[in-house]
Amino acid sequence: xxxxxxxxxSWIEKIVIGLSFCPFAAKPFKDGNIRYKVVHxxxxxxxxTSLAMEMMFLDDNESTETTxxxxxxxxxxxxxxxxxxxxxxxxLEKESYEGVYQIxxxxxxxxxxxxxxxxxxxxxxxxxxxxxxxxxxxxLEQAIEKHINADLIPEKNIQKATELxxxxxxxxxx
Length: 174
Fold this sequence. Notes:
The structure is a single chain. The chain is an alpha+beta fold. The chain has one domain (2-170). It has helices at residues 2-17, 26-31, 44-60, 78-94, 137-146, 153-164, 166-170, and strands at 34-38, 66-70, 101-106, 131-136. Helix 3 links the parallel strand 1 and strand 2. Helix 3 crosses helix 4 (78-94). The protein is globular.
């Protein structure tokens, strides 16, 4: 399990922070305020239960900024992962956490609609393992308010990934 977390931390350090894909990630990473929850198993129900438990954990642990729920054994098929993501969003709403938490999605085979698998822009959301990133919406909004042109972040990320090219990302090791 430590290998999975170490690999995830390396990805955050090299890609998410190193390429400035998320300008808000450096502080909680440096401060150790990110929780890493590794979920083994193949069950969709187990994955959703883990998500619900993490929302409750964040409710009770205000000092934890965010949680990455990592699925090293499941959801390698991107379409099955999208099903998990859809059900996760529904669970967020059903449990009245909409507006409290937000889910960001990362997957090793992430594919934006309308792009080819080889499009470097997909690497802005590609991770070593399928994962759901559970964020505190209020803190995210505060960070966005302080950031100049936060609405341009996705566009800048795509531009950066395109400039680096597919070979850059394929040669990275975590």
